[in-house]
């Protein structure tokens, strides 16, 4: 059964998510990086790939909870879950220990999107930066299934440093914090919903 969300409900959820992400995450590091070749306004469907770090039941439970929250968020933004040739593949991983990772110094994603609706052959220069992430970093990566490369990644630290923890509230907040940085709706979704209202 296909879910339909009213435009006002969508905007309210995104606003609440943005505000709640600020609360309790002030001392935690979060951010995102994107590919200049991503066709962000064309993606419509998604599915998952992921790799649990351990095979114990608690870790697998955390991954299932993350999958549920990520799916809900993408569906609110108009994307449809699909088993057949999805446009995006979603990978997510929790690093329980401290992590040194590479990010990129880039223009804000929202601003870049407005100015670059279509990918061009001209490549902007990537400016890599090194980042230190504290225990319990959640990394979510969106991959263009057709091109077989990553087009966006979001991350936040201090999520869950203990793999045996059964608290899912942190996971929910972490997903909201990450996807508040990916405010891209499926092409035509907002127009469809505004005409239905």
Your description of this structure?
This protein is of the alpha/beta class. The protein is built from 5 helices and 8 strands, in the order H-E-E-H-E-E-E-H-E-E-E-H-H. The chain has helices spanning 7-22, 57-76, 109-115, 169-179, 189-196; strands at 30-34, 45-48, 80-81, 88-95, 99-104, 128-133, 137-144, 149-156. Strand 7 and strand 8 form a beta hairpin. The model is unreliable at 9-27 (pLDDT under 50).
How much beta, percentage-wise? 15-25%
Q: What is the count of distinct domains?
A: 1
What's the story with the biggest beta sheet?
6 strands, mixed
Q: Mind telling me the C-alpha Rg? A: 17 Å
CATH architectural name: 2-Layer Sandwich
Q: Compute the number of strand runs.
A: 8
Name the average pLDDT: 79
What sort of overall outline do the alpha carbons produce when their principal axes are compared? globular
Specify the helix fraction band.
Answer: 25-40%
Helix-strand makeup class: alpha/beta
CATH topology: Double Stranded RNA Binding Domain
Strand order of the largest sheet: 1-8-7-4-2-3
Terminal CA distance: 20 Å
Q: Which CATH class?
A: Alpha Beta
- How many individual helices? 5
Low-confidence stretches: 9-27
What is the succession of H and E elements?
HEEHEEEHEEEHH
Domain DUF4136: 32-182
Protein name: DUF4136 domain-containing protein
InterPro entries: DUF4136
Pfam families: DUF4136
